[in-house]
Amino acid sequence: MDLDRIIVRNLVKKYRRFVLKVEYAEFKRGLNLVVGSNGSGKTTLLKMIAGFAWPNNGSIEIIVDGLKYSPREAMKLIGYVAEDVIFPNIKVRELLESFTLDKQVLRELVDELKLTDHLDKKYMELSAGLRKRVQIIIALLKKPKILLLDEPFSNLDILIIPVVKDILQKLKHETIIVVTSHIGLEIDVDTITILDQGRLLYHGEPSALKPKTILEAEVEGKKS
Predict the structure, then answer these.
(1) CA distance 222 to 133
(2) Where are the alpha helices (DSSP H) in the chain?
């Protein structure tokens, strides 16, 4: 029985006038998609799972290989891709090599994500899309038990998006993957979580999702 999972209970995070509330969510091994418009709380949720932000109330419990961790304790198990991650402005080759001694794996990822021609450029000289590729490679080099990807497809070259999707599909049998997006994605996922203005509208299998129910919840939210 696979016990690896992230369990979110009665989570509340307040930031100025924004309040994120997630009563219960469980992310297991597989591909877990969190969707919602900009400002819905997706990034905040991922930051708390990654250990870079703290809830005002509630808990996040991470279970890997039968051991329980807090997000801070689990950092060594997590690969994290986020818009606001800052890396030293050194050559891409030097940056990537600082995260691994396995040059074969690094070479394969660089080839797969088509970064070979950019290795001698400095990180901040790259376009947003190329920096995103570097961030994805760094996250994968950790061989993480948990992979958190905040808007991983934004700014990516249209030819690279299928490559990243294929990588995620290959990893999902052995990794807890949580991907956020402000748009629907054509990708096979195991669970979907829908956030709207800090409210949890749905969490579960895509096959059980009822569009009419979600629409009614959105309308009700606008009335309140």
Answers:
(1) 38
(2) 42-50, 92-97, 103-112, 128-141, 161-171, 211-223
Q: Give the chain's domain count.
A: 1
Whether residue 72 lies inside any domain: the answer is yes
For residue 174 the two structure tokens come to 């052995």
pTM, rounded to two decimals: 0.90
Instruction: List Cβ<8 Å contacts ≥24 apart for 96-105.
Output: 96/134, 96/137, 96/138, 96/141, 99/138, 99/141, 99/142, 100/141, 102/141, 105/141
Terminal Cα-to-Cα distance of the chain (whole angstroms)? 43
**Boundaries of domain holding 181:** 5-82+145-223
Q: Sort 53 into a burial class: Cβ within 10 Å, 0-12 / 13-18 / 19+.
A: middle
For residue range 110-155, list pLDDT tens digits in order: 999 999 999 999 999 999 999 999 999 999 999 999 999 999 998 8
Buried b (16+ CB within 10 A) or exposed e, 61-82: ebbbeeeebebeebeebbbbbb
